[in-house]
């Protein structure tokens, strides 16, 4: 099929939620390089929206996937024990604050699980706390509950009245606003340590520490959504480590399966102990194939200190971007290998990313006219330098 054949089928039959897509269909990948059906090569600096942390055709991913598939078992259901699920849960507990883990199929589903856990924690105590406060410009997913937690009119407007009740937003990085919004029915605060979709905006260290202290003072829970910032991306296995702020519940997805769909809810024993059989579940969540791939990828990334890799390569990319002299760039910000280039209003991030695509580089965008970079962590410094040169050129 040619690209125009694919486009014709897509525009005739696929639900119009993604509109006109970037004009390319990738058919093969190796390392940080993608190839389209004409064999044209592209250097990837977006990793399928911060998902493909090990790039393309990495043996730790492809090998585990093929080996598991060849056993004949992709899925058995959670009625039975699932070995890689138990091992992956243990691995995550060993390397994080968490005592217990639940697996879902996506980031939104992980956030749904986190919100249910928070509610159940207070329900089990006979407490009236059920409300969850998140931040303006946040992104937590596309299900009804996660849309209600996503502080963006663009995502919420078509789905009002929002479900469930009790989800509100306050300005990000504003402690007074948060304090004022908390009442005796508040169960949890849900935040991204760095907002990804919202514009690659880190929480200020003082703010996140103060939110933790406030939650402790009032006996409410802190949920960190690390769906985008997690899995070595920002320079530590999870971003909270760099803030020295430990959540009660953390959600992970995107990089966790390095391209295979999987999400996770991580919880402290304090919270997890409120959960009883039947409180939550999933048919597909944590299935054998997803966990086998994720387990192999996570072992590889932890074993090869990919947090350090993300710090070093991120510093290199950040430095390369900061040397670009262009009056279109307002700021370059981010942590590790999640970097945003804030552009002036007259320079569209979407148009710039298409310009880069035409030059053989894949970059993303974020809200607020930001060019968003979340490269596969296996990208080379030479590839990043070539990108910086292409960006310099494209900005002219
Ligand atoms: C992508 C994202 C989600 C949603 O994940 P899905 O897998 O698309 O459901 C939730 N939270 C954050 C911070 C994200 O970046």
Outline the structure in words.
This protein has 396 residues and is of the alpha/beta class. It is built from 15 helices and 17 strands. A 7-stranded mixed β-sheet has the order 4-12-11-10-7-5-6, with helices on both faces. A 4-stranded mixed β-sheet has the order 1-2-3-15. Strands 13-14-17-16 form a 4-stranded antiparallel β-sheet. Helix 3 (59-70) runs antiparallel to helix 12 (288-303). The two termini are 35 Å apart. Residues 106-108, 111, 139-141, 192, 196-197, 225, 227-228, 253-254 line the site of pyridoxal-5'-phosphate (PLP).
Query: What is the tally of helical segments?
Result: 15
Q: Quick one: how many beta strands?
A: 17
Q: Major beta sheet, specifics?
A: 7 strands, mixed
Shape descriptor reads: globular
**Stretches where pLDDT falls below 50 for ≥5 residues?**
none
- Give the strand content: 15-25%
Report the bound ligands by name, code or SMILES. pyridoxal-5'-phosphate
Beginning-to-end CA distance, first to last residue: 35 Å
The radius of gyration over CA amounts to 21 Å
Q: Which bin fits the share of residues in helices?
A: 25-40%
Structural class based on helices, strands and sheet pairing = alpha/beta
| Strand order in the largest sheet | 4-12-11-10-7-5-6
The mean pLDDT is 98
């Amino acid at each position: 099929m040619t690209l125009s054949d694919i486009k014709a089928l897509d525009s005739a039959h696929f639900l119009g939620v993604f509109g006109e897509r970037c004009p390319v269909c990738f058919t093969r990948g190796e390392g940080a390089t993608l190839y389209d059906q004409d064999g044209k090569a592209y250097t990837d600096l977006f990793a399928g929206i911060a998902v493909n942390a090990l790039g393309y055709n990495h043996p730790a991913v492809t090998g585990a996937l093929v080996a598991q598939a060849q056993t004949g078992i992709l899925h058995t259901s959670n009625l039975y024990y699932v070995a890689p699920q138990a091992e992956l849960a243990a691995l995550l507990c060993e390397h994080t604050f968490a005592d217990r883990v639940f697996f879902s199929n996506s980031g939104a589903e992980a956030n749904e699980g986190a919100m249910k856990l928070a509610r159940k924690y207070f329900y089990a105590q006979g407490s009236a706390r059920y409300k969850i406060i998140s931040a303006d410009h946040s992104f937590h997913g596309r299900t009804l509950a996660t849309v209600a937690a996503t502080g963006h009119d663009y995502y919420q407007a078509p789905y009002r009245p929002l479900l469930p009740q009790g989800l509100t937003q306050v300005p990000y990085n504003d402690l007074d606003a948060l304090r004022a919004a908390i009442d005796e029915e508040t169960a949890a605060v849900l935040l991204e340590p760095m907002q990804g979709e919202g514009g690659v905006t880190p929480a200020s260290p003082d703010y996140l520490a103060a939110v933790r202290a406030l939650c402790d003072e009032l006996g409410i829970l802190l949920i960190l959504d690390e769906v985008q910032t997690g899995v070595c991306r920002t320079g530590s296995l999870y971003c909270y480590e760099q803030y020295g702020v430990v959540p009660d519940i953390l959600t992970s997805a995107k990089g966790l399966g390095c391209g295979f769909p999987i999400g996770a809810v991580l919880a402290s024993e304090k919270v997890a102990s409120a959960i009883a059989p039947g409180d939550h579940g999933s048919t597909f969540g944590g299935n054998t194939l997803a966990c086998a791939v994720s387990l192999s990828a996570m072992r590889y990334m932890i074993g090869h200190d990919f947090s350090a890799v993300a710090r070093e390569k991120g510093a290199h990319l950040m430095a390369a971007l900061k040397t670009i002299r262009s009056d279109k760039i307002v700021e370059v910000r981010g942590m590790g290998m999640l970097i945003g280039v804030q552009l002036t209003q007259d320079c569209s991030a979407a148009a710039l990313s298409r310009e880069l695509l035409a030059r053989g580089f894949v970059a993303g965008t974020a809200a607020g006219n930001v060019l968003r970079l979340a490269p596969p962590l296996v990208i080379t410094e030479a590839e990043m330098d070539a990108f910086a040169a292409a960006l310099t050129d494209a900005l002219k």
